[in-house]
């Protein structure tokens, strides 16, 4: 089991991550393997067999010439043998003075056929021989050591072994290229609907309009997935529309009641009881607005290019009105594709929370063209590391350090709304320790 897991982990590391690349490998790997097996079998079996037969025939011709030369070693006999070899055997024969055979030359890297040629001629001639298949392009030189001379034989390369291997290799490469081209074209047509579906789902997840040319197309399984996504999108949009309508009605009714309370309190005489009731009504109004914002989530707002430096300057001025000293620093492109009001509310909650407990705030935005990261640092008391995730839970109020119910009667929804907005953009919010000594809030969203 551990071996199987190790193999799976290794394949997961070395395999490409994209479906397009993996599909190409699935198609190409068997083709390459098949071509390799065919090439090996063809070269090892067919070519070697053809070379063996050709080399045997040439070896027998040379052996016959050696026997005739041995029976009649006169110059006239040598001239006659050279003529016979040239006219009848297509061999160029020359008799040289007796001398040692040259040393063997380096063989080419792929010398299976050369080894077969040397073996077959040696078996037929049964004398010391020297074979050179490298020196000349179209001829093979063979030297046979006789008793009183050296017989030099030049044979055409096609007479000694099958020399048209390049045709087979070219055919293999051409066939592989055609198969690869067909596979690429086919896979592009199959992958394109999947990519379109992915873009549409990502845009919907970020609260943006999907591609205008998105259509249900592709293979049956892809079409089913696209149709299911469209049905899900319609159900979610219908549910959001119904929820928005319901919230609008509830908000209107509750605001009407609160307005009636204010009017009734205004008609009463001023006193401690009246002031206390008025504070309760105002607190109920703030809590109602916070609850409505949390449930609504500003999901109906479309994304638009937003000037981040201008937005951060507004947040800086807001923090300074609360008595905190704030600074802003931006890096990268100034415009980002976000929902302006929702993103402003997301950052405003974090800046207001920092201004409530800190004297110094540093706001930094980094935009690399693909993602926008906004860091809000403060020098306040911070939040314990083990509670930094808990504070994002709705209606949670901490009792220590940055307790949310200590100042301003918070509803405990500020950070929950912040994370909900960031995640509706396809990003997230995290809390860390700040270099200023307090808390760092980091908002990361695609841009």
Automatic annotation (TrEMBL):
Residues 188-241 form the HAMP domain. One of its GO terms (molecular function) is phosphorelay sensor kinase activity. CDD domains: HisKA (cd00082). Residues 249-447 form the Histidine kinase domain. GO terms for cellular component: plasma membrane. Pfam families: HATPase_c, HisKA. Keywords: ATP-binding, Cell inner membrane, Cell membrane, Kinase, Membrane, Nucleotide-binding, Phosphoprotein, Transferase, Transmembrane, Transmembrane helix, Two-component regulatory system. SMART domains: HATPase_c, HisKA. Its main location: membrane. It is a multi-pass membrane protein. It catalyses: ATP + protein L-histidine = ADP + protein N-phospho-L-histidine. It is found in: Cell inner membrane. It comes from the Bacteria. Its EC number is 2.7.13.3. The chain crosses the membrane at residues 20-43, 167-187. This is histidine kinase. It comes from Hansschlegelia zhihuaiae.
């Amino acid at each position: 089991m551990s071996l199987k897991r190790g193999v799976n982990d290794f394949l997961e590391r070395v395999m490409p991550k994209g479906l397009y690349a993996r599909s190409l490998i699935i198609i190409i790997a068997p083709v390459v393997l098949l071509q390799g097996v065919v090439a090996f079998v063809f070269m090892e079996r067919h070519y070697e067999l053809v070379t063996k037969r050709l080399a045997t025939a040439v070896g027998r011709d040379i052996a016959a010439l050696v026997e005739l030369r041995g029976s009649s070693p006169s110059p006239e006999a040598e001239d006659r043998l050279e003529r016979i070899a040239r006219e009848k055997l297509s061999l160029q024969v020359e008799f040289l003075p007796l001398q040692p055979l040259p040393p063997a030359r380096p063989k080419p890297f792929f010398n299976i056929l050369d080894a077969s040629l040397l073996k077959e001629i040696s078996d037929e001639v049964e004398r010391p021989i020297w074979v050179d298949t490298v020196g000349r392009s179209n001829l093979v030189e063979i030297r046979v050591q006789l008793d009183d001379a050296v017989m030099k034989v030049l044979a055409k390369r096609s007479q000694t072994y099958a020399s048209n291997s390049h045709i087979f290799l070219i055919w293999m490469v051409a066939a592989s290229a055609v198969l690869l081209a067909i596979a690429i074209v086919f896979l592009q047509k199959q992958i394109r609907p999947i990519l379109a579906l992915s873009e549409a789902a990502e845009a919907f997840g970020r609260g943006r309009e999907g591609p205008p040319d998105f259509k249900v197309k592709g293979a049956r399984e892809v079409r089913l997935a696209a149709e299911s996504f469209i049905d899900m999108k319609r159900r979610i949009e219908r549910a959001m529309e119904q929820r928005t309508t319901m919230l609008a009605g509830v908000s209107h009714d509750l605001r009407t009641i609160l307005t009636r309370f204010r009017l009734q309190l205004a008609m009463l005489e001023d006193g401690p009881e009246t002031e206390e009731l008025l504070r309760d009504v105002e607190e109920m109004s703030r809590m109602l607005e916070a609850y409505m914002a949390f449930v609504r989530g500003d999901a109906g707002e479309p994304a638009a290019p937003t000037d981040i430096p201008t937005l951060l300057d507004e947040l800086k001025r807001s923090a300074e009105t609360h008595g905190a000293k704030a600074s802003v620093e931006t890096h990268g492109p100034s415009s980002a594709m976000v929902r302006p009001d929702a993103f402003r509310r997301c950052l405003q909650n974090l800046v207001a929370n920092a201004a409530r407990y800190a004297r110094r705030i540093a706001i930094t935005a980094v935009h690399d063209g693909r993602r926008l990261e906004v860091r809000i640092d403060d020098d306040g008391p911070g939040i314990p590391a083990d509670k930094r995730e808990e504070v994002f839970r709705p209606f949670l109020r901490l009792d220590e350090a940055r307790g949310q119910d200590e100042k301003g009667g918070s509803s405990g929804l500020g950070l929950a709304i912040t994370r909900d907005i960031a995640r509706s953009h396809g990003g997230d919010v995290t809390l860390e320790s700040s270099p200023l000594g307090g808390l760092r809030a980091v908002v990361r969203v695609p841009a």
